[in-house]
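Students often ask why we bother encoding 3D structure as a string. The short answer is that it lets us treat folding as translation between two languages. Here is a chain of 264 residues written in the first language.
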Amino acid sequence: MGGPDEITAARRALGRHLAHLRRAAGHTQHGLARLVQYGRSSVANTETGRQHPERSFWSRCDTVLRTGGVLAAEHDRIAGLDDRRRRRPAARADDHAALWEHRTHIDAHRSALTDTADADARLARLEDEVRQAVADRGRCPPATLVARLRPLRICVDQLMATRQHPPQRVRLYTAAARLAALLAVLAVDLRAVPVARAYAAEALDLTRAAYRTEPQARAVHRTEPQARAAYRAEPQAGDGPPGRPGRGPDMPSPSARDRRRVDR
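And here it is in the second language, the structure alphabet:
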């Protein structure tokens, strides 16, 4: 994790994401460059991954494009990976070769998630990626899997901002709930219990939203056991104030209330 190839791919993906957001906001490269006070060539080279500007560039782009800070946050993540790579001893190239997909396969998946205009195709790809991530949990280290799930969170945010028919919305809520529940379980594995509880609460909220959108969406409740177990995980030393053994703060159960709505 955090090798040169991964960092290069992450920078290119961030550049593609910038280009997508720029076009969606109706800006040309020249127009965006003027607003963020950089040259047009800097914007063009950043979008193709050939140039790696400092954090202030990404913060300005977040402000102009009204992204809520996602570009600067991804820049910070990549900078952290690069810093850790520089600090640790070089690893042998074949140490984990059998663990990873081929880079072109990963790039193809990511491109399908971020560049495809067809929302239904993107949603189907998201569902496939979440299912594969769940299947890979026993084979991949938790930290590796968490890094792999970050682009899926961006994809969820983008799809949430689009309009879908109710059945598509249910599929999106279901995939997003399963993704959040998986992240909650991985956070428990990494002893980040407060983060696990936040992801678990999100998974349960998405479950309720799926019920409200389409009463027949009973399958989404398969995420509840994972999410509730993560929410009630006992904090480890340094994770925050201790709780009662085997429980976190009491959570309102959506099942009875939501099922009454379904049965009406």
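Translate back mentally: Residues 25 and 65 are 7 Å apart (CA to CA). Keep this in mind for the problem set.
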